[in-house]
What we know:
Layout: E1 2-4, E2 9-10, H1 11-19, H2 25-32, H3 42-55
Antiparallel strand pairs: 1-2
Amino acid sequence: xxxxxxxxxxxxxxxxxxxxxxxxxxxxxxxxxxxxxxxxxxxxxxxxxxxxxxxxxxxxxxx
Length: 63
């Protein structure tokens, strides 16, 4: 599924970026371009981020 049509960013790409540590929209905007054109993808991007963090919760805990 496409998350960001403007930059052809898929859900899989967002999940991969989150797995690599991009856990907020600002970072994903720099890395993938999501939310930098029309902004309609921001809510979906936030949902994908949250979903991925639920799958990998311990990975992101602060020491």
